[in-house]
Specification:
This protein has about 550 residues and is of the alpha/beta class. About 25% of the residues lie in helices and about 30% in strands. It is built from 12 helices and 38 strands. Strands 1, 2, 4, 5, 7, 8, 10, 13, 15, 17, 19, 20 and 22 form a 13-stranded parallel sheet that branches. Strands 3-6-9-14-16-18-21 form a 7-stranded parallel sheet. The longest helix is centred in the middle third of the chain and has 24 residues, at about 170-195. It is globular and about 85 Å long.
Length: about 550
């Protein structure tokens, strides 16, 4: 490709006449201008009509897999520098997986962290924009430091730190939008490279309908075994800066969870990662294969999802989703009581995990129980049922003689949907010599499968939960929401349940379920002394 890039002109402040350094996998359009010490990372796209001039402030760094869209101007003042992620001074630092959208202006000294989106005609000058920020259209950011993960609305003028500190957090929808933009521009970069390769263009023109492209080469569809859902997950993981891995296991060892790693995947390029994943699938046809997302800094997994099952069957259930900080896995972990917990409690934990909720635990002593000063136990990162139950057992053992409660958190709505006490002082959960469990008191909630369709009939699990809420001296309530408003968490009260009589309370709950067929209905247990909710659990789904 012919790139209009030049050495920086000799000036009183710079005589080294540095030239751009462009990674071989990057694509810089010939209708763009690039001057001076500009360091362009791998898989970067620089679109037509851009002006990137490191002739005054210098150097510039554009991180891998970022895209600089049409009409963007990047320049810098001679005075002033920012510290890049490599701890070196730069006039302009743009991190990895960033999108600098059409007509935006980045004027140094300026820092844009990994995973940021800078919208159309927005300006960043003498400022730092933290990792994962979303800046919408026609915004001005000047003389401030934006904390990571903040949302800057269209037309905003952020020129003092107080304004910056009050900005809202990005939502999952915002992050999906930014990730989608990255995916589109990665495809464009690959396409532009292909256009300059006559053999690649010839293959495109000659390929048959239904052929799928992988790593720049056309292949017949029957050899493409990875689903579109898996490709999207890989793209999201790479955009989030995570490492990709794969594991396999045969049917006999699947129940024991004895997974083995496929060949390591070092590349950050989407097409190369997909190619490595396909190779693992081909080598282990007839086995389970799962995709793994790894947070290298935290040294933990953020995603585990099965992409192939025995006999070469590719998993297409779509029930796994990518969550950078709170992921749920789509595979069925081997079941077990994880250290001898009551079967009902183990079932409830499994029910929470299958709903895609994050699991947590909290504890508090008797003196602080009335004030609601709960403290978190060790975080539970795993989504494997056996491992989760083992960690739950450890929390119960460490805090014998205290209250311990189980928490289910909806990572999308960022709120708790289950809070239930599973241990009370002097009521420890113990195991007998045979490994089965018993409890000094039935201080846990029984599990159940929420009925669907609004039949209004309570199953035994729900009935037991209602009785338990009443026996704990809690006030009983119920709320409902339709499918459209469910993701927004816009629950509405069904009405008060004033009775403490179990039969009357059950009749009231049945009435609510009949009244709102085709909607979500959840039970609420409220501590009247602390005036707060201690139980929230869904008992009916559409």
């Amino acid at each position: 490709m012919v790139v209009r890039s030049k050495a920086a002109p000799p000036t009183p402040w710079s005589k080294n006449m540095a030239e751009p350094q462009i990674h071989k996998t990057a694509y810089v359009h010939s209708f763009s201008n690039m001057i001076g010490d500009v360091r362009v990372g791998a898989h970067v796209l620089v679109a037509p009509g851009t002006s990137i001039r490191a002739d005054e402030g210098t150097p510039f760094s554009i991180g891998e897999s970022s895209n600089i869209q049409d009409g963007v101007v990047i320049h810098g003042l001679d005075e002033g520098r920012v510290v890049g992620d490599d701890n070196n001074p730069y006039s302009v630092w743009i991190g990895k997986n960033c999108s600098i959208a059409h007509m935006a202006l980045i004027h140094g000294p300026a820092y844009v962290g990994d995973g940021c989106f800078i919208g159309f005609r927005s300006t960043v000058f003498n400022a730092r924009v933290g990792k994962g920020c979303i800046v919408m259209m026609h915004a001005l950011i000047q003389d401030v430091e934006i904390p990571p993960g903040k949302y800057i609305p269209s037309g905003a003028i952020i020129t003092n730190q107080q304004q910056a500190d009050r900005l809202p957090n990005v939502t999952e929808t915002d992050t999906k939008f930014a990730t989608h933009v990255l995916g589109i521009n990665e495809a464009l970069r690959s396409g532009y490279h292909c256009v300059e390769d006559s053999s690649c263009v010839l293959e495109i023109r000659n390929e048959t309908p239904g052929a799928v492209r992988s790593n720049g080469n056309a292949t017949k569809q029957e050899t493409m075994t990875i689903t579109q859902e898996a490709i999207s997950q890989v793209r999201d993981l790479l955009a989030g800066g995570y490492r990709i891995g794969t594991e396999h296991v045969d049917e006999r060892r699947f129940r024991m969870g004895s997974w083995q790693s496929c060949a390591p995947i070092e590349s950050k390029n989407l097409s190369e990662v997909i190619s490595s994943l396909e190779q693992c699938l081909a080598e282990h046809r007839g086995e389970y294969v799962r995709l793994i997302g790894i947070d290298a800094k935290a040294k933990r997994r953020v995603l585990e999802t099965i992409v192939q099952r025995p006999n070469g069957q590719v998993s297409t259930n779509g029930n796994s989703s990518y969550r950078p900080t709170n992921s749920s896995s789509s595979y069925s972990a081997p079941t077990g009581n994880g250290g001898g917990l009551p079967t009902e409690l183990a079932d409830q934990v499994n029910h929470i995990l299958t709903q895609g909720l994050r699991l947590g635990t909290e504890h508090v002593d008797e003196r602080r129980f009335r004030t609601g000063s709960w403290k978190s136990c060790a975080p539970i990162e795993s989504k494997n049922l056996s491992q989760v139950l083992a960690e739950l057992t450890n929390c119960l053992k460490e805090h014998q003689g205290e209250y311990v409660r189980l928490i289910g958190i909806d990572p999308k709505a960022k709120r708790r949907v289950v809070e239930t006490i599973i241990q009370r002082p002097n009521e420890t959960i113990a195991t007998n010599g045979k490994g089965s469990a018993s409890s000094a008191g039935k201080n846990y909630s029984s599990s159940y499968s929420a009925p669907s369709g609004g039949s209004g009939k309570l199953d035994q699990g729900v009935a037991d939960m209602v009785r338990q809420i009443l026996s704990q001296g809690l006030r009983l309530g119920a709320e409902h929401v339709n499918k459209r408003r469910f993701n927004n968490g816009s629950w509405e009260s069904c009405g008060a349940v004033d009775t403490q009589n179990p039969s009357q309370a059950l009749a009231a709950v049945e009435g609510f379920m009949r009244q709102y067929p085709g909607e979500y209905v959840r039970l609420i247990g409220v501590d009247p002394k602390a005036k707060r909710r201690v139980v929230e659990t869904i008992v009916q789904r559409p």
